[in-house]
Design goal:
single chain, about 300 residues, alpha/beta, 2-enoyl-CoA Hydratase, Chain A, domain 1, 10 helices, 9 strands, about 40% helix, Peptidase_S49, ClpP/crotonase-like_dom_sf, S49 family peptidase, Protein_C
Length: about 300
């Protein structure tokens, strides 16, 4: 009996995923054990007022199984985390620490909206370390700024799906027939027909339009200019590529190239409390109190 693979989850699904960067993840076997009810993965860490939120693996709407066993981010979990951190008075800033090839389109815009709302309340910075592709880039570009580590990859802005259709009887001698109710032909579009391909293309283009709108707004790029910036030729249809850090910055898709250590040093310097200054202030108050006591 064949072992179910994670790749089976994406068949027929609209995906914002860089296939080549996701290949190793998709080849993994599906976790086979039941998830304990009490299990709760760690979704963030707070250090000196800075909340670090990992965005990892193939992103799913709400796969508790993949989140618990593999540590992969879910859109629901990310939205819940950002609401919690926004309400936490001890959090001065949020970092989305991204290493993901992307994931499902379903549920993605809700998570992107959660990033936008959090960024209105507190500084939200994104770090592609080293990968923020497709759905992961959709999320990262909603932050206040986006930093890419040297050798990193960002982009893959576009939507894709893999569709299949029966072309011959199955090995058991039976032919699969897919039918829909009279007024629901778009429910199961046949990619082998012109009508089916047109419906699938409509579906994909609608997703791409939403993706482009999110990137244009997040990166402050005129929407009409975006296809040209994403294309690797003079034809705006040749988008969907991934870019090196330097090229991403040149195209306006990222803000800077910086090592991981330098990024966190910079962020901590901007938001973390300064113990030395606090110690000097405390010492000054102590000396003043001692002087008053002596005068008394």
């Amino acid at each position: 009996m064949s072992v179910p693979r994670i790749a089976g989850l994406i068949d027929g699904q609209m995906m914002a995923l860089s296939d080549r960067h996701a290949a190793v993840l998709l080849a993994q076997a599906m976790p086979g054990e039941a998830v304990p009810q009490a299990a709760q993965p760690e979704r963030f860490v707070i250090q000196r007022g800075i909340a670090v939120v990992p965005v990892r693996g193939m992103l799913t709407p709400n796969s508790v199984l993949l989140e618990y066993y593999l540590g992969w981010t879910t859109y629901l979990g990310l939205a819940e985390t950002l609401r919690e951190l926004t309400a936490n008075a001890d959090v001065a800033a949020i970092v989305l620490d991204v290493d993901s090839p992307g994931g499902f389109v379903v549920g993605l815009e809700g998570a992107a909206e959660a990033v936008r709302r959090a960024a209105k309340a507190k500084p939200v910075h994104a770090l592609a370390s080293p990968l923020a592709a497709s759905a992961a880039y959709w999320l990262a570009c909603q932050a206040r700024d986006l930093t890419v580590t040297p050798g990193g990859v960002v982009g893959s802005i576009g939507i894709a799906l893999s569709a299949s259709a029966s072309v011959a009887p199955g090995t058991n001698g039976r032919q699969q027939v897919d039918m829909t109710s009279t007024n629901a032909r778009a429910k199961r579009p046949d990619p082998m027909t012109d009508e089916g391909r047109a419906e699938l293309q409509r579906y994909l283009d609608a997703g791409e339009a939403q993706f482009h709108a999110a990137v244009a707004a997040g990166r402050k790029i005129p929407l009409a200019d975006l296809p040209g910036r994403l294309s690797v030729t003079d034809d705006p249809r040749d988008g969907g590529a991934v870019f090196s850090p330097e090229e991403a910055v040149a195209r306006g898709l990222a803000d800077r190239v910086e090592t991981r250590d330098d990024f966190y040093i910079r962020v901590q310097g901007a938001y973390a409390p300064r113990p030395r200054a606090q110690s000097r202030a405390f010492a000054a108050r102590a000396r003043a109190a001692a002087a008053l006591a002596h005068c008394a």
